[in-house]
Every structure is written in structure tokens, then in C-alpha cells.
Amino acid sequence: MYMQNPVFIPGPTNMPEILRKAADMPTLDHRSPLFGEILRPALAGVKKVLKTEAASVYVFPSTGTGGWETAITNTLSPGDRVLAARYGMFSQRWIDMCQRHGLKVDIIEAAWGGGAPADRYEEILAGDTAHEIKAVLVTHNETATGVKSDIAAVRRAIDAARHPALLFVDGVSSIASMDFRMDEWSVDIAVTGSQKGFMLPAGLAITAFSPKALAAVETARLPRTFFDIRDMARSYANNAYPYTPAVGLLNGLKLSTELLLAEGLENVFARHRRIASGIRAAVRAWGLELCARSEDLYSDTVSAIRTPDGFDATSIVAHAAKTYDVAFGVGLGEVAGKVFRIGHLGSLTDVMALSGIATAEMVMVDLGLNIRLGSGVAAAQDYYRDGRASKIQAAA
After folding, report:
1. Number of structural domains, the chain?
2. Which of the residues 89, 238, 270, 272 could staple to 333 if both were Cys, CB 3.0 to 4.6 A apart?
3. Tens digit of pLDDT for each residue in 305-345?
């Protein structure tokens, strides 16, 4: 069936028609000068979105998972120690990747629904007086639980411990939707993908390396071929790729960054915060709770909503898809069956969000939950109207 309803999963996200058309382009000779007219602006635009002047950007035909692999294989060697906290499905998957690559992972077990424990990072790093830990891994936005972690606090923890470890940040579901300050937070490698805040199809792993991370590349001994940033850098010097690039997606990335910068990054972040706040108002009206344990942890790109004990939250997602042709996200890992997720990032408006809230209400009523039709919609409407009303009054 041809789908016309917006999706409410935390990626891939809804695509503006202008970006879909930008990615859908005739074949172009990627060894011609025309390719450079796509590549250079796309890389420059990503740097602006990341708020970095010092980092070098490398974009691979892959996904965020490929970006994780790019980070570790280009900077680390077999047997190196890395420090990571496990507080959701995606922080766990990065840990698993490190272990498969023969790295020794010091794992901080943290509650699902909580964020990255900066105090524990500091404690462990301070105890590592021999500086055996080579990198610290943090998931900025844990998509499985709807939790945002404080990257600035983790940087302060590393600095307080006077430790030279590199800071790697998974920003797959945060970058281009939530504030990310690569230079200010001294992030050494940032990882994201095309299919989230950049509002494109899946297919691009977007990474950025600080000068410190680039220095580590020359001594790293983990195997790498496809994801070798040295090959990519040499090709970039000639406006080329070391292999066939995803030209259409790169053209879409060029336009995506232009759209984000034209809207204004602070406006983009405020839009996501406003839409997320309306959805959180709906959750409160339903009498339900978020998986995130406190307000400072609330993600502005995805809300993981707990259902009553004994109720299978996955049935909400299945029923929404079958009955109303609307996609929500299922719970993953430790919260599978306990939460359903509403993604609210990328190309989304207040009006689109209201349609997702209304659908979720219909589904929960259909399945017998004690939810009053219209309660969440009304709460979100009040929130969205109040915000816009204040702007109208200020302009009057």
C-alpha cells in the first residue's frame, strides 16, 4: 500500500519532498568536477551543523553503525582499553562492536532510563593513572529509552581526571535535531547518519574527527579498508572518493544542511523541543510516564512511553500499523514490551505531531487502556497554542 501518513519512529524520519527530489537525481560522473560542487558544500554544511571549525568531516556510504566502526578502527589498536556505560540498546551495541574488534571494554552498568554517569567516568579515569584507557564512548541520545545525556558533563569529568582519553560521541539521533557543540565540548569523534535529523534516506555514515583524533589515526593498528579516513582524505583533496560514492544522497545532504542553516540551528532545536514538549504534555494527560527518569534527561527527538504493568506495549505498535497505517517504535532490549516510542525528529510540525498523538490515543482505547479520547490531543494543543499565542502577542 502507498503510505501517505507520516511516520513516528525515531528514524528513518519523514523526508521533505525537496530533499527526496534532491537525492533522486540522474547519474553523474563522480570523477567529474561537478561532483566537487556537491561534495564540498555538503562537508562544509555538516561542519556548521556540528558547530566545529577544527574537525575534519568524512562521509561514508553506510549508516550510523558504520560510523561507529569508522571511529574505533581509525584510532585504536587490538587490545586497547575503552570506557563505556551501558544504559540502552545503542550504547550496548557500540560496546558489542568494540568487543568484536578485540578491544577491552570497561563497562559501567547504568539504569535504562538514566543517562551517562559522568561521575563514574571521572572516578574510573582518575584511577587509571597509567592512562591505559584510550577512548571514552558516550551515546548522546539513547534512542531506546528517550534519554539525552550531558556530553559537556562527561567532558568535564575527563578533564577533572586529567586523562588524555579520546571522547567519542554517538549523535545519531541527536545531531541536526538537538544542540551539539563539537568544539565547545571537545568531542574528538562525532558520529551520525543521514536518516535522522538530516531528513534523508538511510545510507550515509557521517563522522567528524578532531585534530587530536586525527593524530591517533597514524598509530592505530585495527584493520580498516572501506572505512579508512586516510584514503578518504586523499580522495577529498581531488574532489573525489576512494570508491563509488552515493552521489544522490550527498546531493541531498548538501541541500539538507542548507535548509537547516536557513531555518537557523537554534530555531531547529527550539522546534524539536516544542514538539517534544507537546507530546510529553499528552503523555501526562494519559496518566502514563516516560522511560526517562527525570526531566533533565528528556530527549527532544524520541519519547519512550511506559505502559501499565502487565500490558504488552508492542501491541500498540502492531495495532497502529495494522489498523491505522501509522508507524510507532517498539521497545528494545530491557524495555521491550514495556514501552512504545514516538519519534519526533527531523521533518515534523506541530500539526503532524498532533496526528500521531491522536492515533496513539485511538490505539490505546482500542486495546482497552484507560485513556480518554482527546485528552492527550487537547493537552498538546494547549501547549502548542500557548507557545504560538505568546509569539503573536509579542509581535502585536
Report:
1. 2
2. 89
3. 999 999 999 999 999 999 999 999 999 999 999 999 999 99
